[in-house]
Amino acid sequence: MKFIRQLEPVQVETPPVSDEWLHEIKYDGFRTQVILDWAGARAFTRTGIDWSKRYWPVVAAAEKLPAKSFILDGEMIAPEPDGRPNFHALHSRLTWNAELLAFVAFDILHLDGEDLRARPAMDRKAILWDLVKPADGLIQYSEHVVGGGAEFYQAIDKMGLEGMVSKRASSPYRGGKSDAWVKTKCWEVGDFEILGIKREPGKPTAALMAREGKYAGAAAISLTRQAQERLWRRVERSRAVKPQRPVPVAFDGAKVEWVKPGIKARVKFLRGEHKLRHATVQAFRDEGT
């Protein structure tokens, strides 16, 4: 069997609340498709690259499941002892301790010659559980709840998890972007250092940010007019000819007003991202002279 294009959820601000939806934890890892057929088990990345050698313990576990053939959709994670995924540990485990990885299966597309993609999501999950249960080893099962999207979001936010994925219980599986699946990310607020201000016609003014001395991404300026005017005056007093921290080469020659250290900003950003995403500056304070 061949790799199947994966269904990609649409991002939304708030989760659906009706009982027509089931909700799962959004695991912070690498999207993975596991295929078993006459040639054995293989594991593929989001883009269809064969990473079976890197994921060899999970591939070996897949060959022991009670089926002749299947295609599973899921996430490869580096679980902590309490089960939480640790994205930052993924690379080291891939290199040195692949047996400490786990594959969290959340959908099944084929089983023993039957194409299951036209079946409702709820039916597919029941079939998946029957295949992988008790799911307490290297191959795990993504638990779900039906309805109560707002309460589920509050619970995962309190647990410090990245977010959630909601799936219409009656929906088939179709590759590509689909609003039959939606993801809702959790937010965090933290302190960052402003490296510079970038202004582009037709786009919101953005602050280039650093955290712990490293470039962290950009955040749109979301301040009151009075606060913006104070920030512009502070930027004018602190101009620098070049960035005070290392920044991506894409900013070489870009029209950025670089500033000297000392301007700190309170930034709201999506949790679980490795650079600032959908970030906004909520406030700033002056720690310079």
Give short descriptive properties of this protein.
alpha+beta; OB fold (Dihydrolipoamide Acetyltransferase, E2P); five-stranded mixed β-sheet; 5 helices; 38% strand
Write the layout of secondary structure elements.
Elements: E1 7-12, E2 21-25, E3 30-37, E4 40-44, H1 56-62, E5 70-77, H2 90-96, E6 102-111, E7 114-115, H3 121-132, E8 139-141, E9 145-146, H4 149-158, E10 163-168, E11 176-185, E12 187-198, E13 206-211, E14 214-221, H5 225-237, E15 256-258, E16 263-270, E17 280-286
Parallel strand pairs: 1-11, 6-8, 14-17
Antiparallel strand pairs: 2-9, 2-10, 3-4, 3-5, 5-6, 6-7, 10-11, 12-13, 12-15, 12-16, 13-14, 16-17
Give an overview in words:
The mean pLDDT is 93. It is built from 5 helices and 17 strands. The chain is of the alpha+beta class. It has helices at residues 56-62, 90-96, 121-132, 149-158, 225-237; strands at residues 7-12, 21-25, 30-37, 40-44, 70-77, 102-111, 114-115, 139-141, 145-146, 163-168, 176-185, 187-198, 206-211, 214-221, 256-258, 263-270, 280-286. The protein has 2 domains: 15-185, 2-Layer Sandwich (D-amino Acid Aminotransferase, Chain A, domain 1), CATH 3.30.470.30; 187-286, Beta Barrel (OB fold (Dihydrolipoamide Acetyltransferase, E2P)). The chain is elongated. The protein is 17% helix and 38% strand. The N and C termini lie far apart (65 Å). A hairpin with a 7-residue loop joins strand 12 and strand 13 (206-211). Strands 3, 4, 5, 6, 7 and 8 form a 6-stranded mixed beta sheet that branches.
